[in-house]
Each structure stands twice: as C-alpha cells, then as structure tokens.
Amino acid sequence: MSVRLTVLGQMKQIAEEQQRSIAQLDDATALVESGLDSLCFAILVARLEAELGVDPFTMSEDILFPVTVGEFIALYERAAVDEAA
C-alpha cells in the first residue's frame, strides 16, 4: 500500500475510533480543519511509525511542520524514501 493510502486510511480509521467527524480529505485540507484533534494526531503519528517504519518528526532537526493534509503526506513520503536510501 502506498504511503498516501496508508496515511489517509489511518486518518479515517482513527476518526471513526475516536468518534470524530472527519472532513473531506484532499491535499489542500488544512490539518486543523480535518476533524482530528491533538490526541488523534498523536495516535496517527504512532501508528504511522509502526506501519511505515519512519517518524519524520524525529529524523531531522530542520523540519517544517505540515499545515495541510498534502504536506503531511509528502513529509511521510520523503521520510520513507530517505529511510530506504
């Protein structure tokens, strides 16, 4: 499964588990408007690390924090490529 599909699938699953209404997710959706709260994002980052084997937030000190769903996905895509290299 691609990184994109993994991230989006986990976001939807966590929203369901946490009984949160989730927005229509596309690359332009702001993370703060996604429907997920800080607990949901903490769960998301932990699950993505377990599933993808990377945590981009600890891989570099010069990280720019994502603002949109697209930026969040791209962050994980880059981290997966860096880890594989």
Automatic annotation (TrEMBL):
Gene3D superfamilies registered for this protein in UniProt: ACP-like
Domain (Carrier): residue spans on this chain: 15-55
Alphabetical list of SUPFAM superfamilies matching this protein: ACP-like
Protein name: Carrier domain-containing protein
Lineage of the organism: Bacteria, Pseudomonadati, Pseudomonadota, Alphaproteobacteria, Hyphomicrobiales
